[in-house]
Each structure stands twice: as structure tokens, then as C-alpha cells.
TrEMBL record:
Domain of life according to the entry: Bacteria
Name assigned to this protein: Histidine kinase
Record InterPro entries: FIST_C, FIST_domain_N
Keyword hit for Kinase: yes
Length: 375
């Protein structure tokens, strides 16, 4: 893996960086992690992406990280030596879609898998059926390899083209990338429950309508105000909500965090990722120290003794953008905690995709995914 960062964030800068990487050495596949503030439009990007001779994949995110520094503008390019297999799954908000079938159809042209594989997965983070896609990935591929990825998109929370492929810049899709490389990973979040469980009595996709048969926003507002001592308003919802995610308990895993993004229809809560009716949620809260300690733990989980010394290993860090908003300037402490010996590159996402060992594959929120890739 070779990383190159273009601070300009322009299409011309992307093209120049691509040429620089190609001139250095042959590229098997190219991952592009770009910032939303670059302001890219399909008409600017599509000619560049469609002209790429190697497989290209990635997304546009609120921020990226390059060598332990977070950036709101710029483009991170990561060139892989290994040749990836790439597929695209469309209609990620389609209420009628069977994603077991769609994943199977999208990847049926792939040859037999190599002995060792890692799956990179980037999705439109504002699509409404990401968890269904993740279940489709599990149904088709199981947990024989690691999954690493996350949700692309904008903090404006307006859905727009944000997934990069050889076909161009796309919306409401997932790009699936099978790499013939070994990987290690750790997944943690650092948020703690501060309430009793509440039953989701009304939900559709990623929208929670009622909790314990009361309007969801009314319940959430009451609990957050009681704990924080501050008033919560629908118009300025996320400024306080970023500190109070929900937690879903799932068998054999850490609590799966769900991030409430905004209020809809007066008293519904729109989350990043599905919340099934009948699930039980608890209100969570954390401190900067607990989040930074959790990120450090993710690194420790991924790093058996001696592994990080191998020259071929590179660190890829997928971290939730709301952790940046929560930590503020202390995001530097988190990045230094996960990359003390070797700098990390990656993206700050709208939701994270990873498996926890051989136990579970999940779409997370407000979570740190630290991975080591052996390209």
C-alpha cells in the first residue's frame, strides 16, 4: 500500500496524484477517500473515474485522516499492489429489495476466492437499508474473511452522490471490494449506558417513531435534558444529540451504537442505520477519555505481539465523524493513541462496517475500527 494526500481537493489534484502514483509503480487497485468540502460533482469526477485503467473505489466523507491528522478538505489516495474484485449494489434504500439476492447477483462474476481475503465495503451512509445490505453480505460470504468499511456522505445530511467507482460518482449504492490480502482488526466505541432499556414500539427502516408507545423525540428529549441539564430543540438537534447515542444490545457483541441524526415529522428520530421494531434501546453517554481509551483498545485488539513490525503492514482507521464532533481538538489524542508507532490513514464516516472476530458482522455508529492490512 502506498498513500498520497492531495490537500487541494480539486479534480485536477486528484488526476495529478493518480499520475504520480502510477509513475512510481504499477497499481493493482486504487482507493480514493475524499472530503465533502471538496465539492465534487459527477460531471467533474465521472470522466476521471471512467478513464481509470485500474479498479477504483472509495467515497466522499465529512473528513479523512492522513498520517494522524484529520482534514476537512483534500483527497487521500491509497494504491494497492493486490488486484481487487469490485462490485456495486444499487438501490440501497429500496424497501422491497432482497439484499441477499442483490449481493449474490452483483458478485456472481467474481472468480473463486483466494485462500486469504479481506472485504472493503463503502456505502451511502444516508441510505435507509444499510443493515439489510450487511445481512446480505453475511449471508453470501459468512465470516471467513474480515470486513472493513463505512458510510460515505455529508454532515449536511442531504443525500447526494458520494460513492466512487469506475462507473462514476454514485448515490444510494454500496461498493464491495474483495482484496486478496490478510488483515487484522479491532472494534470498540467507549460509550456507556445511562438508562434502562426502552422498547422500540414503532419504527420503519432508520426512523424510530415510538419508544414504549410514546413519541420517540419526546422520550429522547426528556432523558437527554434530565442528564445534560440543557434544553434540546429539534432545530438544533445534533449539537446535543452527538453526545447521546442509542445502544442496541445484540447477542455476543458489544452494544451496537445507533446515532440519532435529526427530528422528522415533528417527533420521529432519524438514525444512521436501521433500528428494528421490537428492539430494545438504552441511552448512552461517554467522555473524551472513555472514547480515546476505547480507540486505543481497538488497536490493541488488532495487534497481537510483533505483528505491527512487519514492513508490509499498513494501518487503515475507520472512525465515526460524530466522534470528531464530540472530541473536538482531542481527536488528535485519539489519532495519536491508535498510531503511536506508525501513522494511520483513513476516513471519518457516517457509520462503520466491521466484524468482531468470527462472531458478528455489523453496521455500527460512533465506533472506531482499527485495521492492519498486509498488501
Amino acid at each position: 500500500m502506498r498513500a498520497h494526500f492531495d490537500p487541494s481537493g480539486t479534480p485536477d489534484g486528484l488526476l495529478a496524484a493518480l499520475h504520480a502514483l502510477t509513475d512510481e509503480a504499477a497499481i493493482g487497485g486504487l482507493m480514493v477517500l475524499a472530503c465533502d468540502a471538496n465539492g465534487w460533482q459527477p460531471e467533474q469526477l465521472d470522466p476521471i473515474l471512467q478513464a481509470c485503467e485500474m479498479p477504483v473505489f472509495g467515497g466522499i466523507f465529512p473528513q479523512v485522516t492522513y498520517q494522524n491528522q484529520n482534514y476537512e478538505r483534500g483527497t487521500l489516495l491509497i494504491a494497492f499492489n493486490a488486484l481487487p474484485e469490485v462490485a456495486c449494489v444499487h438501490g440501497l434504500s429500496d424497501a422491497e429489495a432482497d439484499f441477499d439476492e442483490r449481493v449474490e447477483a452483483a458478485t456472481e462474476h467474481w472468480p473463486e476466492p483466494p485462500e486469504v481475503t479481506t472485504m472493503l465495503v463503502y456505502v451511502d451512509g444516508l441510505s435507509s437499508r444499510i443493515s439489510a445490505l450487511v445481512e446480505g453480505l453475511f449471508a453470501n460470504f459468512g465470516l471467513e474473511n474480515n470486513f472493513i468499511g463505512g458510510g460515505a456522505g455529508s454532515l449536511s445530511f442531504q443525500q447526494k452522490p458520494c460513492i466512487l467507482t469506475n462507473a462514476g460518482l454514485l448515490a444510494d449504492v454500496a461498493v464491495l471490494v474483495r482484496m486478496p490480502i490478510r488483515s487484522l482488526l479491532g472494534v470498540t466505541h467507549g460509550w456507556q449506558p445511562i438508562s434502562e432499556p426502552m422498547k422500540v414500539t414503532g419504527a420503519q427502516g432508520n426512523v424510530v417513531m415510538t419508544l414504549d408507545w410514546e413519541p420517540a423525540f419526546d422520550v429522547y428529549k426528556r432523558m437527554v435534558e434530565a442528564h445534560s441539564g440543557q434544553e434540546m430543540h429539534a432545530e438544533d438537534f445534533f449539537s446535543l444529540a452527538k453526545s447521546y447515542p442509542f445502544g442496541m444490545t445484540k447477542l455476543g457483541t458489544e452494544i451496537v451504537v445507533r446515532d440519532p441524526l435529526m427530528v422528522a415529522e415533528g417527533n420521529h428520530l432519524v438514525c444512521v442505520g436501521e433500528v428494528p421494531e421490537g428492539a430494545f434501546l438504552r441511552l448512552l453517554n461517554g467522555t473524551p477519555d472513555s472514547l480515546i481509551a476505547a480507540a486505543k483498545k481497538a488497536r490493541e485488539l488488532a495487534l497481537p505481539e510483533g505483528v505491527g513490525e512487519e514492513a508490509a503492514a499498513s494501518y487503515l482507521f475507520i472512525d465515526c465523524i460524530s466522534r470528531v464532533l464530540f472530541l473536538g481538538e482531542r481527536i488528535a489524542d485519539e489519532l495519536n493513541a491508535v498510531g503511536p508507532d506508525q501513522p494511520v490513514n483513513g476516513a471519518f464516516t457516517l457509520g462503520e462496517i466491521a466484524n468482531t472476530g468470527d462472531a458478528f458482522l455489523e453496521f455500527y455508529n460512533k465506533t472506531s475500527v482499527f485495521s492492519i492490512l498486509f498488501d
